[in-house]
Amino acid sequence: MRSQIKSAFLLVFLAVAIPASAASLDDKVPDQQTISALELRANQAQPREQCFLYAELVHDMIEISLRQYAAGDAENATGLLKRAQEFIHKIHMALSDDNKRLKNAQILLRHTAYRLTEMLHTSASEDRQLVQQTLSEVNQAQNEAMLQVFRK
Known about the structure:
Blueprint: H1 2-27, H2 32-44, H3 47-70, H4 74-94, H5 102-122, H6 128-151
């Protein structure tokens, strides 16, 4: 009887916790002030922490870019994508064996790639090349982070 109650409780907990954690990445609505603060924090962080902070920064920039594109502001959205590419290059340079929260950075990059894929399907034809290029760079950074996670 007790094992059935524990199993039922565990099942209910998992049913509530998994969707809540999956939705939490999209629930946070970043703004330009958040981006600026995170960029400053990432640039001043210890090398061990920079990979995750840059991944978080790229994720937030892509989220804002998606919202701008959906609102019809394609010019600012593409400008933000180009800026995000600069930080993706910094992720490549920041990857090392002793990174803190490397698995979290890899998960965040995977979610960013998913969001860019959504953007690719809804973007205008003149913007697709930039979105595809950004998606390719995020996928490459995510793959490198995943390889670093498995090397540990």
